[in-house]
Please model this.
Amino acid sequence: MTDRTVLPGHPHIARIAGDLHVEGVPLQSLAREHGTPLFVYSKQWMLDALNAYRRGFEGRDAWVCYAIKANSSLGILRVFAEAGCGFDIVSGGELTRVLASGANPAKVIFSGVGKTRAEMKQALLANIGCFNVESEAEIDVLNAVALELGRRAPISVRINPNVDPKTHPYISTGLKGNKFGVAHDRAVPVYRHAASLPGLEVIGIDCHIGSQITASAPYLEALERVLDLVEAIEAAGIRLHHIDFGGGLGIDYNGETPPHADALWKLLLARLDIRGYGDRRLIVEPGRSLVGNAGVCVTEVLYTKPGEDKNFCIVDAAMNDLPRPAMYQAYHQIVPVAEKNGAPTTCDVVGPVCESGDWIGRDRALNVTAGDLLAVLSAGAYSMSMASNYNSRGRAAEVLVDGTRAHVIRRRESIEDQLRNEQFGT
Ligand code: LLP
Model:
């Protein structure tokens, strides 16, 4: 029997005879064939994550709208479009992507604090399902754009419930001091105003309190605050057909234990029923929890560099590929692709970019030499979608694994790709 060990917390990644596999495909051979840095995703992990939400919503009218900012590669979007998912977008570019993936526009919702008139127009013409509007000023502009087109824009207002999601400050969004949503106290007058405008059709209410949330309590707190508003808004004669609770459910990067989507939703639905709103359509906008642990980034060790204070392991992936450590001091596990005997040393895993902030992992125990491959785990969300060309580095290639088959869903970006839109000014 072949020796197979599943990585804890990563059911679709296993070590088989010493070599790391995503589903049935060895990372060694993918790296050999496609080069590094290389993102590799498990299709099954994504579908399992989606099914956890669907189990939680069984028997309910509920839409899971994948927040594509987490990973907007077309090959990933196609997986969710084929599974009948809705989508949460925040730009005209994202709208073009979801439509290209074959999504049903009626299940597309458009979030974000700064939609332009051109983006509103594009979305109205595509007949998207809902605009989540975030300010009084935006309500008036959307009304005007809709009237110009002879349409009515379906809207929900994103309210800011002033709840602390207890996550990194950069990814908390539902606190008073954040730029997002309409203040709880302003919600009723804002809804009255929106309902009076001929270019708008009020259909729902929306909130999103933050990202990488690892407890149920902030959701329960936000739910009560939102339902208080539903009550007040409906008392003012405005019917709300759906309630959108946003995204934000966290994943296990390094031993965190966020609630499973099905368990969380059973809890929230019980509260919703008690308060008499269990019949409303529910919308969620998960991003990270649908893709985060589906992906790994395979990178090659270029050099090892012993230092006076620290040892460095310099790899060919960098902050332009994996920006989360530099931006949020985020932790990603880093494991060798091929098992190796020998004692580990403590080192910082860093990229080639000319910034001290270009680190991927600090103080990691690894036994590495140049030429070895490492896998950076939990790289499915907010890595490729936030990748840049800093230091004129081309963006990595991406592969989607489906069982024993591997499909390239993005070829490696060449320098020609990077130079294409540039010209000399004179
Ligand atoms: N809906 C709205 C309105 C959002 O702003 C976001 C994320 C989501 C849904 C999806 O949240 P998720 O389920 O993925 O937590 N770059 C950061 C995360 C930024 C999240 C921004 N908004 C990171 O790498 O941790």
Q: What stands out?
A: The longest strand covers residues 295-305. The CA atoms of residues 103 and 362 lie 40 Å apart.
